[in-house]
Amino acid sequence: xxxxxxxxxxxxxxxxxxxxxxxxxxxxxxxxLDSVDRLYRSDRSFGTIEMRxxxxxxxxxxxxxxxxxxxxxxxxxxxxxxxDKGVATLRIQNDMWxxxxxxxxxxxxxxxxxxGSWMGSDFTNDDLVKESTLLNDYDSKLVDAAAKAADGDxxxxxxxxxxxxxxxxxxxxxxxxxxxxxxxxxxxxxxNGVKLREIVFKDIKTFGNKTIPxxxxxxxxxxxxxxxxxxYKKLEFEHVDESIFSQMNLQKRI
Length: 254
What we know:
Oligomer: single chain
CATH architecture: Clam
Largest sheet: 13 strands, antiparallel
Strand order of the largest sheet: 6-5-4-3-2-1-13-12-11-10-9-8-7
């Protein structure tokens, strides 16, 4: 596994879909997409997650601690398994660095790696780092949901990348429940309209005063038997010391 794919910044946030209706009674797409982008982010937050990677040949589980300061700063450190313990990532706006304690080296993450797999999982680096956003990097519109009755009463938002957006996706469909504004899933298609993968949101829980899906389950349809599940075990919205987001902390050994 290439060392430069050890990129992860799990977006931690408030899931706040309050007031997503425009004055004309129609859904405010911009507010909905902004809330999706901030799904697991907050002005200040700390969390612990478990990532379970499943393939036909092997399974592995990662335990990770994360800190976030708004949309601009994120710090993450891997707690287990032992062979990855201490690997850390720092993101400040568009700059990212990874620290590898076994070789005592810090590496800056190149933009060309954003759509690559992270740690052998089915999530891309951009999924976790969130360098691009649904609101700012995609053109959006509501689409007819008549054929999607199995989901219940949902909004379906189609996203197509803007000319400046670096992505492998031809379009993304975001599905949001109308009654409680919780996300149901995100569907990812190539330029030919073939669905390549799907992220399903499950297990709605309350962390503090925030209600969010505690589980994100990603299934790639071009890789039979593969699946990656992210589960939030702990999520707190509190003061985070700004010194966490520093090169000194990045290189700290645990």
